[in-house]
């Protein structure tokens, strides 16, 4: 209907004049978005662990934000889900989220057993002999991971566990 009032050749220059300034305005933001990784330069999300036995979890990224939780387990695995400057938004195995300063986190990879009685095996296969059974809440050090099995050290024992029995590793994650 508008083509009866305005000739077709009118729309191309008008469209060009409207779109060009919009693209020019968005281009710097698009370039910055591609060049600005997370402050740490590391992937998000990722698993880390708590460096201290007492870690304040805040409602926002800074000391002026109130403390919402206090985590009391050193080496507990947490997942970094966001970053802001030197602050990391973390989530624990139960889904509790909050902000902590990066100095309270360690790159050491740990897991927490979540299955009712997880089987720690001598080799990475279900028919391998049992090393131990682990109760929920036991924390172990993650040593190696393949898609179906992870080697962990917990309570002085080393063995293989299936990732579905622990929290702190992604499905099909490879780690050496």
Structural features, described:
The protein is of the alpha+beta class and 176 residues long. Helix content is 18%, strand content 38%. The chain is built from two helices and 14 strands; from the N terminus they run ααββββββββββββββ. Strands 6-5-4-1-7 form a five-stranded antiparallel beta sheet, with no helix packed on it. A five-stranded antiparallel beta sheet has the order 13-12-11-8-14, with no helix packed on it. Strands 2-3 form a two-stranded antiparallel sheet. A hairpin with a 2-residue loop joins strand 4 (77-84) and strand 5. 24% of the residues are buried. Residues 14-36 have low confidence and may be disordered.
Largest sheet: 5 strands, antiparallel
Strand order of the largest sheet: 6-5-4-1-7
Give the number of helices: 2
Please report which band the strand proportion falls in: under 5%, 5-15%, 15-25%, 25-35%, 35-45% or over 45%: 35-45%
Structural class call reads alpha+beta
Shape: elongated
Order of helices and strands: HHEEEEEEEEEEEEEE
Tally of strands: 14
Helix content percent band? 10-25%
Task: Kindly provide the radius of gyration, computed on alpha-carbon positions and rounded to a whole number of angstroms.
Answer: 25 Å
End-to-end distance: 66 Å
pLDDT averaged residue by residue: 86
Please mark out the parts with pLDDT under 50 across 5 or more consecutive residues, or reply none. Answer: 14-36
């Amino acid at each position: 209907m508008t083509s009866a009032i305005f000739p077709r050749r009118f729309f191309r220059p008008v469209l060009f004049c409207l779109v060009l300034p919009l693209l020019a305005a968005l281009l710097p933001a698009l370039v910055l978005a591609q060049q600005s990784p997370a402050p740490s330069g590391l992937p998000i999300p990722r698993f880390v662990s708590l460096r201290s036995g007492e870690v304040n979890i805040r409602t926002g990224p800074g000391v002026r934000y109130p403390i919402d939780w206090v985590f009391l387990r050193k080496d507990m695995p947490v997942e970094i889900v966001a970053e802001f400057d030197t602050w990391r938004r973390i989530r624990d195995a139960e889904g509790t989220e909050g902000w902590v300063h990066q100095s309270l986190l360690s790159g050491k990879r740990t897991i927490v057993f979540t299955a009712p009685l997880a089987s720690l095996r001598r080799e990475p296969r279900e028919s391998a002999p049992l090393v131990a059974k682990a109760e929920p809440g036991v924390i172990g050090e993650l040593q190696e991971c393949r898609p179906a099995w992870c080697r962990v050290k917990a309570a002085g024992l080393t063995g293989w566990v299936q990732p579905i029995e622990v929290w702190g590793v992604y499905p099909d994650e490879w780690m050496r």
